[in-house]
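2024-03-11 09:14:02 INFO worker-7 job=invfold-0412 stage=load source=structure_tokens
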């Protein structure tokens, strides 16, 4: 688990996401679709932006990396 924790510690929001984080109502909102995080579809950091995990798993999404 030590190596995984080290990798996670290096994942940081990009400048645009840090700007969004200054607005409390946007902290838990997806940068891609504007919807809130959900237990079934949590937000993750992808290239520094918070987006729903499902965006990275959908081949029709611009965030998919199959």
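2024-03-11 09:14:09 INFO worker-7 stage=emit residues=66
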């Amino acid at each position: 688990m030590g190596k995984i924790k080290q990798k996670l510690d290096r994942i940081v929001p990009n400048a645009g996401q840090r700007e969004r984080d200054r607005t409390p109502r946007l902290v838990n909102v997806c940068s891609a679709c504007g919807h809130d995080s959900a237990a079934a579809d949590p937000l993750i950091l992808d290239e520094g932006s918070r987006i729903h995990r499902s965006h990275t798993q959908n081949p029709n999404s611009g965030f998919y990396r199959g």
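2024-03-11 09:14:09 INFO worker-7 stage=report msg="The chain is about 30% helix and 10% strand."
2024-03-11 09:14:10 INFO worker-7 job finished
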